[in-house]
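For the sake of transparency, this paper describes our internal protein records without simplification. An entry from our holdings is shown next, in its original layout:
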Amino acid sequence: MSAACAVKLSGGHPCGGALTFVTDAIGRLVPSCARCVRRVAGVCQDCPRRVDGTVGRALRCAACRRAKLRLDGLHWRTRDPEHARAVRRECHRAYRDRKRGGPPTPREERYRRLGHARAAALTPARRREIALKAITTRWARVKAAA
């Protein structure tokens, strides 16, 4: 008879180790989980070394933790490569913007700098006035060149 261990770990997820039932000295069935026993003793889940961190909370030694994180990253990238590329692109864009000086600017701020907001705020009469002034300036340049 085996079941999964339901002890909550520090991240809130259950241990999930296989429970083994052992008969104690007075004849009761006592559930025991090998993962929880190793965690409480401060032994790595994958090798016989001591855990790197708080005994009773940490699951792995430093070397095994690095290997597990590397493996988890590989699984994440291969499970949905398009999403992984999109996330990487966004992170690279944010890094590039930070290197250029400051946080990434929102679209409204970029439009304001480029003058889109000013152009949208002008009345049609003012736009015609600006256009006529530009036309006369261009003709003045043409006449001066001739």
Observations:
- DSSP finds six helices and three strands in the chain.
- The radius of gyration is 33 Å.
